[in-house]
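To whoever is on call:

I kicked off a structure prediction for a single chain this morning and the downstream step that reads the tokens threw a length-mismatch warning. I double-checked the sequence; it's 391 residues and nothing unusual in it as far as I can see. Pasting both halves so you can look.
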Amino acid sequence: MRADIQSPLAQTAAGAIAEEVLRACVHCGMCNAACPTYQIAGDELDGPRGRIYLIKQALEGERVGRTTQVHLDRCLSCRACESACPSGVEYHRLFDVGREVVAARVRRPWTERLARAAILALCARPRALGAVLKLTGKIPFQTHVGALPTAAHPRRVALLAGCVQSAAAGHFNAATRRVFDKVGIDVAETAGAGCCGALAFHLDAPEQARAQARRNIDAWTRDLDAGAEAIVVNATGCAAFIRDYPDVLADDPAWAERARRVAGAVRDPVEILDEAGLAAKRAPAEPRIAVHEPCTLQNGPRLSGRIGGLLAGLGYQPQPVADVPRCCGSAGAYSLLQPALARRLRIDKLAALTADGPSAIYTANIGCWMHLGAASRVPVRHWIEAVEAVV
């Protein structure tokens, strides 16, 4: 697909990214078959191919309005289209550029601006966020953090604390630290690092997101220089955005190389634990489980099947799940801003996950945990908790 990207974007790294992605697209439409919103709405503009055309028009300087913005807003950024694309189109890279351009040209209704500002303000204040989540029932299950390991090991990794996760599920990181301690790896949350920036980037505040990215890069660079072998992120949505830091800061030469270094150091816990020789010390109390693979685990790092395989090796019995690639509807703040679509996707996902009567659902992302757990009839937990229960 040819594009005539207009100045000033044409002279930027973001413009070059958009042109590269557009050039790879051959209009085949195979992406639509994998797109959750297209499957629900049946509207070409609610599928990747239609959205690509809308973005192309915006980048070429054509008039854009609320119609373009609404259809872009309905995108989950799940990247299922990328896994289905035979041409290797990296849709999310184009989508990120296009969304920022449209947001700058189309003023949202005040209600939408207020909602986005409120979400960002809460996420910047973990204590207030935790209180609100408890009041609204958005925290599905409460678990004490428990004791943290104190032994020192030669190997060391950095750990993302997170914003929503630190407020809603601090026990995820605590369990991660204890499991890594058992395989001889120190884990510590990096001083100075905070929210990954994904929420701000997706909520019309790209410069705030870039400031958060720079702060994190600065903090993690110090850790890497001091000997940390990786940056462990046990929220797959955050990991996906951090891996995109080189694009987020592509037009900032002072940070681009450092962004690539940090992005290249990101690891999901399963990537390290798969090679750590974990052995179960006891049988699972309730071995029949369902593994929920977030879109950001499947379609970014392509780690599908790894968590289920690790848990099976520890004695669990992951049950078959239908339609694994389909998004659960969480997608960061999507479930708050597009509640009808998010609920429809959650109903379908929970039906698939609970079809064979699992004792619990194990996921890998804080947003999915909250979204699924708020409506699930069986417990929803992080998969690292299943590991800790048996090793």
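Update from on-call: the warning came from a stale cache, not from the record. Cleared it. Sanity check on the structure: The two ends are 52 Å apart (CA to CA).
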